Amino acid sequence: MAYTENLTGRNTDIDIIKGTSIILMVWGHASGSFKHWIYLFHMAVFFIASGLLWDDMDVMCLKGCKDFLIKKTRSLWIPFILCNGFFNLMHNFFLKTGIYSDNPQFIKIVKGTSNYLQDYRDIHKTFTELFKNFFWAGGSQLGGATWFLRTLFQVLFIYMVIVYISNKLNIKKPVICISIIVCSVCAAFPVIKNVPFLWIFYTLCGITVPLVLNAMFSKCKNIVLKIAIYRREGRLYKYEAHK
Fold first, then answer.
1. pLDDT at position 26, please?
2. CA distances from residue 117 to 53, 70, 130, 140, 141 in whole angstroms, order as listed
């Protein structure tokens, strides 16, 4: 599929899709109108958009896989660490200034769960949380939205392995089809915890739908072209027969 690119090489169509989704996400989290409708698709759009940007050629060899992981480490892992690291270091300050709360009455006011309550941390607890961040674990209350970075990294890593192995075994199409089916079923019945089957499914949709549409349009174009050639040849035959 053709996308619009600006002078910097960025895909402006995908930027518009992501920008619109970010606005809708903020609107939904702010309890704006139609938030339940927004929740039906707003996160799925981000993973589908990531799938649209996927290129199998990036991970066809071990060097490509290595470069791909380095790129995603810079764009996903490092921001996750920096963001949650900062919030974990500032944890006690946030409690002291009222940004966080350890008062049980707070739960009744916001109608939340015990996850909203925080306790003061000592140095050992603080460094434990910082250490966990390096392994995509833990997080922070204010950095809760960074789950997307962690999950997207997991999704892209899993699909990279699928593409690399299926390419080496020359069974790409069957493997991709099976992956879509397995992820869609497991997303409906999440028997295995902490595996982002639903988000893998959405990313696969972003990767495969353009390929399917391209194949459909290509076949339709070929059919129309064949019909046009057939009619043209028929006219030429009649013209020659008349002569």
1. 85
2. 39, 36, 19, 12, 10
Which residue's structure tokens are 């390929």? 211
Residue 225: pLDDT band by 50, 70, 90 thresholds?
A: low
Rounded-to-integer distance, Cα 66 and Cα 151, Å: 19
**Alpha-helix residue ranges (DSSP H) falling in the chain:** 12-29, 35-38, 42-52, 62-72, 78-89, 91-96, 105-110, 123-133, 147-168, 172-188, 197-242
Tell me if 65 sits within 8 A of 164, measured CB to CB: yes
Instruction: Report the alpha-carbon distance of residue 140 to residue 101 in Å, rounded.
Output: 14
Can you tell me which residue has the tokens 């619109």? 20
pTM confidence score: 0.72
Structural contact between residues 64 and 56, judged by C-beta atoms closer than 8 angstroms: no
Give me 99's structure tokens: 């940004």
Tell me the pLDDT tens digit for each residue of 44-92. Answer: 888 888 887 888 788 888 899 999 999 999 999 999 999 999 999 999 9
Q: What is the CA 44 to chain-centroid distance, rounded? A: 7
Q: Which residues 6+ apart lie within 8 Å of 150 measured at CB?
A: 76, 80, 136
CA–CA separation, 100 and 94 (whole Å): 5
Residue located via tokens 């764009």: 75
